[in-house]
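Q: I'm writing up a methods section and want to include an example of the input and output format. Could you take the sequence below and give the corresponding predicted structure tokens, formatted cleanly so I can copy it straight into the document?
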Amino acid sequence: MTIIHAIILAIVEGITEYLPVSSTGHMILASHLLNIADSDQTKIFEIVIQIGAILAMFVIYWKKFLDLELLKKLFVAFLPSGILGFLLFKYIKILLGSELIVVITLILGGIVLIVAEKYYKDNHAPKIENINYQNAIIVGFAQAVAMIPGVSRSGATIVTGLFLNIERKVIAEFTFLLAVPTMAAATLYSLYKSKDLLTPDYFGILIVGTAVAFVVALGVIKVFLNYIKKYDFIPFGIYRIVLGLVILIYLYL
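A: Here is the clean output for your methods example:
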């Protein structure tokens, strides 16, 4: 992987991390189009640069982490993916190399997102504090499903929030905040398990990728929050379906 490859993948990560379209799925597909080798280093890179997106979110929402009650709810929501991620880490790495799984989950996820929007009824309660512990654990299990490439972490939690009739902006913000413990744990554990791969040259590529993902994600988060104040998630569902079909035709027909 070259520096140019790292920058391109980091831009893809920054744009898609907080959108319900699957950042991991997009990076896998981008790697395929760029002819980047499907190596352990590539897979670790796709996980580690998410720390840039985490920092971007933290810059915007750092005051929320001073709320002890909210932190408890985030911890409850984190537990399912934290435990399952630890137990299934080696299997997740295998799935990260499958374009077919990404295609299938992109299409199915798009359909489910559209159905969720049709089901959703605005409860007019735009406060993140309104998420109770029961909803938090349900959202947490939904996030765990997103370990499958292409599902989308934010997509899974947002869809679940819509089915629970949690206001769009609220579930989006909860999704953003939940990213901090989830992606931080995934990144640190990946670095620990792959420490032998961290050569000086490769570490430099990780730094560049993380920095680029941070800058791009910072802008995307603000744009996305402004978008959902006025519009729904159906266009993202349509995008997922169209993208999945295009990739299916490109790769397999």
